[in-house]
């Protein structure tokens, strides 16, 4: 009897064993699971870079150089970042059809998956602005009034107060911002394509960029009607002044002629 009671298990033995097993399992998962996930992510990124390099070699290297160092026909792409690639290729500006004062927007020739691969390769050449997330450029929750103030202060000189675009010197122009993907507007502010200055987060905060995008979305007449009625193209004081001269002054001249004719006729009678 004494031997049997000596061999009897302690009531908490099963609990101790279970806790020990859980601790071992958790430790093993923590040690190996993150490593395997990171390894999978690295493998996917390496594949994207490799595929992007192939696309670059066939479609971009002629102008920008084999290693992206640039040539006399195209600037260096080292350090421009993935955002610049997503903007230029995603808006169809690159590959360019022909050299000129400015490369216009056109239909893109690469799929978004291919653009992502090209962006991954260019980003591997040197650090630069990255493609923004949807939360960064979505107009939801933004301050439209603040965005309008910022846009008129920093952008309207070239793009017009409502984003209709405008002419610049030497055959260059500020393109219309109507019906432009909010992501591409954000990327343009990040990277400063062609004649546009760049607005990094140190110059213009992420929140301010979001406010500007919300303002442009609100004044885009391709998405909604102008609450002010006839917009005259939204081109500002030039078109409004021309309208006033042609129709306003024209109407006054017509009224003056009519009054003079009536007066002369009354005197004759």
What does this structure look like?
Keywords: Cell membrane, Electron transport, Heme, Iron, Membrane, Metal-binding, Repeat, Respiratory chain, Signal, Translocase, Transmembrane, Transmembrane helix, Transport. It comes from Streptomyces orinoci. It catalyses: a quinol + 2 Fe(III)-[cytochrome c](out) = a quinone + 2 Fe(II)-[cytochrome c](out) + 2 H(+)(out). It is built from eleven helices and two strands. It is mostly helical and 269 residues long. The protein has a two-stranded antiparallel ribbon with strand order 1-2. Strand 1 and strand 2 form a beta hairpin. The longest helix has 47 residues, at 13-59. The relative contact order is 0.09.
CATH architectural name of the largest domain = Orthogonal Bundle
Q: How confident is the prediction overall: mean pLDDT?
A: 84
Q: Helix content range of the residues, please?
A: 55-70%
Largest sheet: 2 strands, antiparallel
* Domain module tally: 2
**Beta-strand content estimate:** under 5%
Count every beta strand, where a strand is a DSSP E run of 2 or more residues: 2
Instruction: Determine the structural class based on helices, strands and strand pairing.
Output: mainly alpha
CATH class of the largest domain: Mainly Alpha
CATH superfamily of the largest domain: Cytochrome c-like domain
Low-confidence stretches: none
Measured between the Cα atoms of the first and last residue, the distance is 148 Å
Q: Determine Rg (CA atoms, Å).
A: 32 Å
With helices defined by DSSP (H or I, 4 residues minimum), what is the helix count?
Answer: 11
Order of helices and strands: HHHHHHHHEEHHH
Approximate shape? elongated
**How do the strands line up in the largest sheet?**
1-2
CATH topology of the largest domain: Cytochrome Bc1 Complex, Chain D, domain 2
